Fold these 3 entries.
Entry 1:
Amino acid sequence: MSTDVIYLSQEDVVEKVGLGMETVLSVVENVLALHTKKDVLLPSKVVLDFGEREVGRINAMLGYIGGEYKICGVKWIGGFPKNPVKYDIPRASALIIINSAETGFPLSIMDGTYISAMRTGASTGVGAKYLARKNSTQACIIGCGVQAITQLQALYHVLPNLKTIKLYDISQISAENLKKIIEQKFGSLEVFVADTAKEAVEGSDVVVTVTVADEPIVKDDWLKPGVFFSHVGSYQEEEEKVILNADKIVLDEWDQVLHRETPLVARMYLDGKISSEKIYADIGEIILGRKKGRESPEERIFYSPIGLGTEDVAVAYQVYKIAQEKQIGQKLTLWDNPIFHIGRK
């Protein structure tokens, strides 16, 4: 049996394999459904915390996915907020290792930074597919870092009537730079940089917050009836009334959100401010039709996806399969003859 491991760089994943948002959306939706079917294994995320906002943190996210995948692996991802300014390198970096669930042997090691960003955007996209109004025309994104690009990519795929994007960031330069990128990638969209968060939120059918804030940015009074709100950041991005006044609260997986403790919806639950009855569903229940998604144009729906290692591993497996078909990647040999092996044949 071969012990070759395929190494795939970011260029391999993006340019040669050609991983696109449509593929990632499909994989993430499948994985979320498999969570509800209990056909996954997902240990809780391990966080090596150096002081997440002051210095940084590295997460180990493991998972096994059944269904059509039957694969396991781990994402090892660091986020160090001072990197862009101090070292002129990206805030996040990641590796993904996927292993055979039959032998346990590693199959591939690949860049996980791009995959992680894409699946995070896809998680909001899957939520919007089932929970946003189908005729949504206007979205706003609070936080104009790299992750905002994949959030928009996903929304663009699932909301065909989207016409207007409003951006807000505490850094006007970041917002203006993102505006240029969006205009280049999505020429059909009108893009505006808002002077305030209020200006960005008001009138928007979809609101996405993707920041490292731990204070309320979005106020309840700014939200229109029928809004779909995706809270992507790990801390507090809205005031508590946004959650208290939501008609439905939906998670990617409630147990994982609760284990992380830091998202506002988990903190409110742990503080006794909301009860378990207020939590409507995991998105997989809605995907499988076990619970209804949006039931009226006026419903305000709050969605809090924490991000699941199973999503990363499943997307990485899709990349690996395409790489095998196209013979992409560098072969790394673990050994020619194992030192510690007693034959049984």
Entry 2:
Amino acid sequence: MFDILQLIPGKKKLTQSGWHSFNAVCCGYRGHKSDRRGRGGIRMDNNNWTYHCFNCGFKCNFTLGRNISKNARLFLSYCGIDKEEIDKYNLESLQHKDLLDFTKVKKEKKKIEFKEFYLPSDAELVDVDNPKHQKYIDYLLKRKVDIKDYPYMCTPDAEGRQNNRIIIPYTYENKIVGHTSRYLDDKTPKFINEQQQGYVFGTDLQNKEWEVCIVVEGIFDALSINGCALLHNTISDQQAEVIKNISLPWHTKKVIVVPDQDKTGLQICDRALDLGFFVSIPDWDENVKDVNDAVVKYGKLPTLLSILQSATNSKIKIEMQRKKLDKRL
């Protein structure tokens, strides 16, 4: 069968996320400026492959045993392959049709597991009717999160700092797999985490019918919009797998990464694009540094709309947004 990487002109570079990047061949044919910054990407799966241009947005895929699709034919023509040769490749592909059982071909989730974890023995659910819980309730209301939407916990009868914290359980497939404590005093650290490697907060908040999965950095960012939180400003390989499993079929469900609007937060943009995700940097006021700040200032729905409207996978647009932010920081 034909080797797609050999048909693509120019140099190619294999990224950590498994994409072969190169100068995209489609942009000039689609009314865009020719790519000179390696925005084209091929992801291989044995003889099958997926192409995505992170500049003009063109994408296609090929599965051995099936007809070459219209977009895949266009892509091959952009690589300089004539129609007769493409027809020949199509016939070669169909010769493998008997090897496929199309009723069973289905992309399955890669099994990801986390060890079950126990919460502090004296932890109790935050209760709006309990006078001892008022300071925890006041803090959650200040952050504009619904107290009834998540099982926030506290330890009001503990000694020292421990009676001045909100405990947020980490769950995965509805099992407790860790937690974070957000302390309400002015001391540092503000957060103390019990977190397993590769964990992404908020997977159990996602609805399989949703067309978008929004990925943020902080836990209150996620809680305020029912998103997922990385809990830091990078996306590890393990976390990338968790996110893709949430959003399967991941190539049809849009994953939007919303970085914090500071210098460290913006570093996540390139990694998100390498993974095939979208990035959103909304034009918020200078004092709004993250999603939760935006929810507090604008409300949940306007914040979600601004994220969706600003989402892009164009490196040029993202670079322009980053430069605009850099001038403010």
Entry 3:
Amino acid sequence: MTKMQPVVLHQISNLSSGLGNSILAITIPWLILERTGSPTFAGLVAAVSTLPAIFVSPIGGWLADHISRRVVSIGADLLSALSVAAFPLAALTVGLSDSLILVIAIAGASFDPAGYTARKTMLADVAKTSKVKLDRLNGIHEGFMGIAWIFGPAAGAILIAVVGSINSFWVSAALFLVAAIAIALLRIGDSGKDARHRAAASGNKEPTSVLIGLTTLWRDKLLRTLSVAILVLGGVYLPTEAVVLPTYFESSNSPSALGLVVSAIAMGGAIGAFGYGWISARMQRKSMVRMILLGSAASVLAMALLPPLPLLMAAGFLLGLSWGPFNPLMNSLVQERVPGALHGRVFGVQASAFYAAPPLGMVLTGLSVERLGINSTYLILGGVLAVTACVALLAKPLRARF
């Protein structure tokens, strides 16, 4: 095994899973709008399908800490592949009703968060085996996730145009299988398991509660503040990508334009994530957080004006570029401030927080689009995001050096 093989296999899994999900982000709402013409139902499906992740993410983190990070990742990707394949299989057999689309979407959304969390808990072990600096690997990991969201939406739009929305689900299912195979070939240590063995040998009892991730995160004021910011910002921003933009472009029958805008956001995010190591060596972290929050808010406000496509893509690119370093930064802070045996549960709680706010926001956004229109809804969401960013920057933990 070459020194970099663990990094390569881990990132093949990361990229494949990300591509599968980013294609679904286009094909599922497009399938719904194509069949029902209702942005409210599209928002409802997007909202309800995120609910399982609120509960599954902490459980997936607990499983990663207590069973095996590799096993959890492989199992989650295999189940994701099966759930995605259920869309075309149902269409070929019993037919896709509105209720069945909702059920399959919920089932699929129940598996992916556990795989995402498990792969993140493996970062420290991959870095150790490959002798790569952890900050650098955090940036690589989130950068490749960004790359997946550059090509995935465009691929989804092309698939819709070439083979139709329902057949495009086969591609996502195959990508989840590739993700599972890559982790099955990965050979690294398991720091969570090692910590449990050391504790047992010394007579100490490692905390086993699922809730220990929440209490650990809450007691750390910095991590708590940033996690609350994620909760609010996710609840405001995600509905724009899941409801507002698909409705805007579906009304003009422009799936390729939707793919281009989402890909521009992802391209900026990938560049920002890959640049995290370089930025962190030259900028204080509190200054980096200011840049992230203010840059993101300003970019969303520009997008809310719904300018011509080139300007909308440019604003989306700046949004991604501003937000890109945030996830690697959060990974580094957790890895530095939380014991390795608790990484799964802490990352799981953070993922749960990210999924907790969007459901209500998506439903309300769908209703607002139908009653107030796309332009007014987007401006309201952009304004809320800007206010939230400013309030977060005034919090004491973010004003201190960290």
